[in-house]
Write the structure tokens for this entry.
Amino acid sequence: MGTGSKKKKGKSKQLDVPGPEDVQGIAVPEKMKNKDYEREIFKLQTELVKLQEWVKATGARVVILFEGRDAAGKGGTIKRIVERVSPRVFRVVALPAPTERQKSQIYLQRYIEHLPAGGEIVIFDRSWYNRAGVEHVMGFCSKDAYTKFLKNCPNFEMSIVYDGIILLKYWMEVSEKEQHKRFLARIKDTSKRWKLSPMDLESHRRWYDFSRARDAMLAATDIPQAPWYIVPSDDKTRARLNCIADILSRIPYEEIPYKPPKLPPRQKSHGYEEPKLQHQHVAQRY
């Protein structure tokens, strides 16, 4: 069950996370070498494949949701989780802004339809917590709707858990200084400019409004049945490793025995020959 790996002693003492506001409360170790990161991420991704086979075999249902400020590292972590697994088992849900029809529905309705069936793991890249974050701060919902969400969300999540779904909630916590640095990098890097939206710029300006919203959200929805797990993410590589390792540690999966198949011999050609047709080919530039 789980990864079964032992924690390695780092060069700096790891402290308990005192709260989402105080990322600096954790001693910062040396930058991880890329070869070390690649070795560790491969080990974890191998475990994710084992988790996948267990989910398929047992019909388990898992929901993993990622929240956090813009540029906190949610997308990169999700990318590493799904890199070596099947999209038919690990399904990523990143919903766009609601349509006019969806705005007239029960708020949670469009999220409920994406919850997993047996043998599925659904990863929410932002989730129903949009109401407690960007919708509230930016005035996209009424104060009454916001208050009702914070009150009713724990009951909704308890109903998910009581129905047998494993629910894991992760908050990626980036510091003010690091978010600023990442936004500047997006402006300078032509391959990342698309990541910087008008909403990102507004989140940069309204840092403390989003801080207050985060604090209220965590206070209202951090319940024993579905607790929040804080992931300090100023160091992207360690954040990904720590988060994936935590996911694996919280799901009681077991390795399903694998019986390698025997490849059958190829059929005989029975006179088949490649047709002599002219086709366009891509230029061999590399």
Remarks:
- The first strand starts at residue 61 and ends at 68.
